[in-house]
Amino acid sequence: MPDVPFKVICEIEPATRPDLRRVRHQIGVLTSVASDFLIPDNHLGRATVSSVAVAHEVEAMGGHSIACLNCRDRNLLGLRRDLLTAAAYGVDEFLCVYGDNPTSGGRTSQLTVRAMIEEIHGWGNEGAVPDGRPFRAGVATRLGPVPQWKHDADFMFVQVSFSAEALVAWRESVAFLKPVYPGVIVLASPAMAESVSAGLSVEIPSALRDRLEEDRSAGVEAACQLVLDLRDSGAFEGVHLIPVGRYREVAARLEVLLSR
Q1: Among candidates 108, 133, 135, which has minimal Cα distance to 119?
Q2: DSSP label at residue 109
Q3: What is the structure's pLDDT at 206?
Q4: 157 Cβ partners below 8 Å, 6+ apart?
Q5: DSSP states of 31-88
Q6: CA-to-CA distance for 77 and 205, rounded, in angstroms?
Q7: Does residue 194 come out as left (phi exceeding 0), alpha (psi in the -120 to 50 range) or beta?
């Protein structure tokens, strides 16, 4: 079996205004290290430019995109609209998620992540995609047992962690035979560390917390090193890297490390 390149899937900070210049700048800067780009969908419960539209921008700039779709904001007709738009734009990969709690309004109740994956697989396999490529649907999971229905997904994103050992041990316990991409996030400040720890119930090493108090680049260094550790473990097909506003520093540092 031929070696498969280790993927670095970089998450883009989405646009909350009708201006894609910052999005395009992120794509351009991160292209040196990114295999693919993940486009969030109404990230953190705020309205953003359509993930399918931004995924199209990535494709137009010569990259490959995964459009995030959350079940919070969609009924079945809305999902079918997005898939029709994606097919017209040549976007064929999706990450299906539950969605953050909205900052205003409520959730729809018609769709679940499971139902979205089933719809994407069925819709794409009916030959509706212009070039004949089937749609691929991924799912997100926490560190722990994986429900059986999630094994129907084409790939899996894993919750952010700061421990390569914990991620590898979890991977060895899960019989998922398709690509798995653990989450790696750049902590930009002590305040962000507190927010991530509380919001995601993730343990952040005390040594990293201490370094963040003294060194602005500590979060970049830790995230880039974790990417390398996960690559070298051989347990994963790639990582889901979240550089937040530090994408320039991440691109510069990771390009050097990956070239060694």
Answers
A1: 135
A2: -
A3: 93
A4: 95, 138, 139, 140, 141, 181, 182, 183, 240
A5: TTT-SEEEE-SSGGGS--S-HHHHHHHHHHTT--EEEEEEGGG--HHHHHHHHHHHHH
A6: 44
A7: alpha
Question: Hey, what are 245's tokens?
Answer: 């506003």
**Do strands 7-11 and 36-39 pair parallel, antiparallel, or not at all (unpaired)?**
parallel
| 20 lies in some domain | yes
Q: What is the pLDDT of residue 260?
A: 77
The mean pLDDT value of the chain amounts to 90
> Domain range spanning residue 218?
7-258
Which pLDDT band holds residue 2 (cuts at 50, 70, 90)? very low
Q: Give the pLDDT confidence of 199-224 residue by residue, as tens digits.
A: 888 999 999 999 999 998 999 999 99
221, part of any domain? yes
Instruction: Specify the pTM.
Output: 0.92
* Within-domain flag for 74: yes
Helix (H) or strand (E) holding 140: strand 136-141
Please give the pLDDT value at position 101.
Answer: 62
Number of structural domains (the chain) is 1
1 falls within a domain: no
Which residue matches tokens 């999902």?
A: 79
Q: What is the dihedral of CA 177, 241, 133, 96, to 10 degrees?
A: 80
DSSP 5: P
* Domain CATH for 163: 3.20.20.220
